[in-house]
Amino acid sequence: MIELINIDPSSFEEAVYQPIWVDSMVEEYESIKKNSAWEVVPRLEGKSMLGSKWIYKVKHATDGSIKKYKDSFVAKGFSQVEGVKYAETFSQVARYSSIRSFLALVVHMGWKIHRMDAKKSFLNGVVEEDTYIEQPEGFKTYD
After folding, report:
1. Residue 67 falls within a domain, yes or no?
2. Is the CA virtual torsion 28, 32, 34, 39 positive or negative?
3. Domain total in the chain
4. What distance in Å separates the CA atoms of residue 15 and residue 74, rounded to the nearest whole number?
5. Which member of 28, 54, 67, 118 has the lowest number of beta carbons within 10 Å of its beta carbon?
6. What is the rounded distance in angstroms from the CA atom of residue 140 to the CA atom of residue 102?
7. Considering the domain boundaries, does residue 131 fall inside one?
8. What range does the domain containing 4 cover?
9. CA–CA separation, 4 vs 61, rounded Å?
């Protein structure tokens, strides 16, 4: 019998002992590798490195049941220095006013609309310069 877990782990140390979260992290890591989001290299002398961490969230359906266990591998962005590329953060989230405008146009024009879940959409971003980030905890190739 599979035990349902309804509490978000607050750290990798908590999640690693729960198979459902381990499976979710493996899926996330494999997706990142499959999409060639990065190249793993040994730590380079003199290069600054962004920290990283896992974030865990139990997603619920409208009836309150557990829909899925979602984890994300994220960079610790709080290491930014004001004035040095400080305003260059970006999040691919649409504003509600944009969505409403788009839907109004769809209705007005009589178009059909299709909804889809863009899983791992952040992997489509292009970064022009070399950026170094710590490897995901539990998946380190180099130290």
Report:
1. yes
2. negative
3. 1
4. 16
5. 118
6. 43
7. no
8. 1-79
9. 14
* Structure tokens belonging to residue 7: 């509490």
The angle subtended at Cα 15 by Cα 51 and Cα 29, nearest 5°, is 55
Which H or E run contains 100? helix 96-109
* 60: in domain: yes
Q: Which single residue is written with the structure tokens 């999640």?
A: 15
CA distances from 57 to 12, 13, 107, 120 (A): 12, 15, 35, 16
The set of residues, in sequence order, having a beta carbon less than 8 Å from that of 113 and lying 6+ positions away, is 103, 106
Quick one: residue 110, left, alpha or beta (phi over 0 = left, psi -120 to 50 = alpha)?
left
Residues facing residue 69 across a β-bridge: 58
Please list the pLDDT of the chain residue by residue as tens digits (143 residues).
Answer: 445 667 889 899 999 999 999 999 999 888 888 877 788 888 888 888 888 889 899 988 888 888 888 888 888 766 666 666 655 555 567 788 988 999 999 999 999 988 766 666 556 666 777 888 888 888 887 65
- The verdict on residue 93 lying in a domain is no
Residues in contact with 103: Cβ distance below 8 Å, sequence separation at least 6, in sequence order: 113
Has this prediction a pTM greater than 0.90? no
